[in-house]
Amino acid sequence: MQNLRILGKGKTALALKKRFPNADLYDDNDFEIFDKDSNDLTIVSPGMPPHNKLVIASKNIISDYDLFYNEMPFTIWISGTNGKTTTTQMCQYLLEKFDSCYGGNIGVPLSGLNKDKKIWILETSSFTLHYTKKAKPNIYILLPITEDHITWHGSFDEYKKAKLKPLELMSETDIAIIPALYKDFKTSAHVITYDTSDDLCNYFKIDKTKIKFNEPFLLDAIMAIISRKIIFDDVDYDLINSYKIDKHKVEEFRDSKNRLWIDDSKATNYDATINALVPYKDKNIHIIIGGDDKGASLKPLFENIKDFDIVIYAIGSNTQRVLNYCEEFRISCVKCEYLEEAVKNIDKNLKENSIGILSPAAASLDQFKSYAHRGDEFKKFVSNLS
């Protein structure tokens, strides 16, 4: 292989360095020694945006998907704004006995996956897709797309363009399952479109009543069932129903007064929050919203919930933006700024038939180490209520 350069020094970059010990690693601190005239093959870590100075100064950029494309077995790529992780894990749960493994944007980086496995299931981010030039999946599962990662991509159009890029690269032997909104997108793949989970159940003859999950996880489960049915013409309702959802995803728990609280810290964009509220829309809702919104507009969230019986508790770096939206849509709001303060305020107002929910519609890094840290702190603050 020709000389290899890797931009970034995070998890993906270090995994690549382990696979290619002679590769050179660079981050922003190395810009002065970076050869801007080099034609060396350059792999960009997904976290580095296209406006990064190292990226701009590079000539021969590909993604790690491109780098390993010739080694890939049968692959299922899963993308979209919400549900990627759950769908990927559910697919692995249903396909593991058929010698599959999973990774990519979660778990094991691509360079660490076992190339002797028969199936790779890859959670695929818009960041990776932006830099991908030739790699393509055998099956592409695209969950609904809503505004996210605007700061990284520069615009919603560029974000959508990245999510739809695999369709441009796929061939007539490949299968793409995509929202009906994109049915006219030009591709050689065999395309199956959907507006709702019912559309998919009807197409694949899946009995929805035999699946135990409710939204927002029902669509994820159906996509996993479909992946197995496409490959092996087999449906196992008992197995999918035994799958356990990860922590911090619409995770219900009760406090010492038997009041219902929900940890949905994984909701890092407005669409995830909208979906999380579906099962509770008829209840009195006390919701914590705020954090790093990554430059995305939250207006669709407030348009969706304006008629709910709801009080919002604003936290994080976009506290003022949340307050402004609440004023615009005439939604009751309490300025808290910090998570512990929000929990204490909800405690004063939460009734037996109410719910207290952390579903922030924003990333966590403005005040926490991760969404998991935010969720753990939330549960700790609730457990400390007297």
Automatic annotation (TrEMBL):
The pathway it acts in is: Cell wall biogenesis; peptidoglycan biosynthesis
Identify the residues that the record assigns to the Mur ligase central domain, covering every copy: 78-197
Xref: InterPro entries: Mur-like_cat_sf (IPR036565), Mur_ligase_C_dom_sf (IPR036615), Mur_ligase_cen (IPR013221), MurD (IPR005762)
Keywords (alphabetical) are: ATP-binding, Cytoplasm, Ligase, Nucleotide-binding
Q: Which Pfam families match?
A: Mur_ligase_M
Report a single Gene Ontology molecular function: ATP binding
Q: Which GO terms describe its cellular component?
A: cytoplasm
Indicate where this protein resides in the cell: Cytoplasm
Tell me the GO BP annotations in alphabetical order: cell division; peptidoglycan biosynthetic process; regulation of cell shape
Q: Which Gene3D superfamilies match?
A: Mur ligase, C-terminal domain, Mur-like, catalytic domain
The name on file for this protein is UDP-N-acetylmuramoyl-L-alanine--D-glutamate ligase
